[in-house]
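In response to the reviewer comment on reproducibility (Comment 2.3), we provide here a single inverse folding case reported in full, input and output, so that an independent group could reproduce the run without further information from us. The structure tokens appear first.
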């Protein structure tokens, strides 16, 4: 009998103990002759249910790792969410699966090109389109001034970023 009880899961053991306590309590209230012994048995079964619960909690506890009590508040290198988002946008754009990602990547490259032109050359893509066209080249200028294509190849994206790096 005990082996069958042990084979039950912890939740079923707890439910069984509570059902036994409920049945004993109901019988105690229903039959007046069993008031004293029944009440004693009901209390004992309730204590058994609490013991089963305590055993279940003790067995399901996890070990505590006290070796690392404090963690650094600075994020680890390479965990910048902006970089992760750009990497996701690049993957989605090169596969052609997500037009929203293509728009995000287009906006990011446009912002980066505007910043690079302003910082390195002192010009703006909108104010001096001829000078910007000469600095960026025809492919990158066409990409930045038109709506983003649904798919962008990895080689083309690499050429765009190389052009922006060399500005």
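Designed residues, in position order:
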């Amino acid at each position: 009998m005990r082996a069958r009880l042990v084979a039950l899961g912890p939740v079923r053991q707890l439910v069984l103990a509570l059902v036994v306590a409920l049945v004993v309590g109901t019988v105690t209230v229903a039959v007046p002759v069993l008031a004293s012994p029944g009440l004693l048995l009901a209390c004992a079964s309730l204590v058994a249910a609490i013991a089963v619960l305590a055993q279940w909690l003790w067995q399901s506890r996890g070990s505590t790792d006290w070796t690392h009590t404090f963690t650094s508040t600075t994020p680890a290198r390479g965990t910048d969410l902006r970089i992760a988002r750009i990497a996701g946008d690049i993957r989605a754009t090169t596969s052609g699966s997500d037009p929203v990602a293509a728009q995000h990547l287009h906006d990011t490259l446009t912002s980066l090109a505007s910043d690079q032109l302003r910082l390195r050359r002192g010009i703006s893509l909108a104010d001096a389109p001829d000078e910007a066209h000469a600095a960026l080249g025809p492919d990158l200028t066409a990409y930045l001034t038109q709506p983003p294509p649904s798919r962008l190849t990895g080689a083309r994206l690499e050429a765009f970023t190389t052009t922006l790096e060399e500005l």
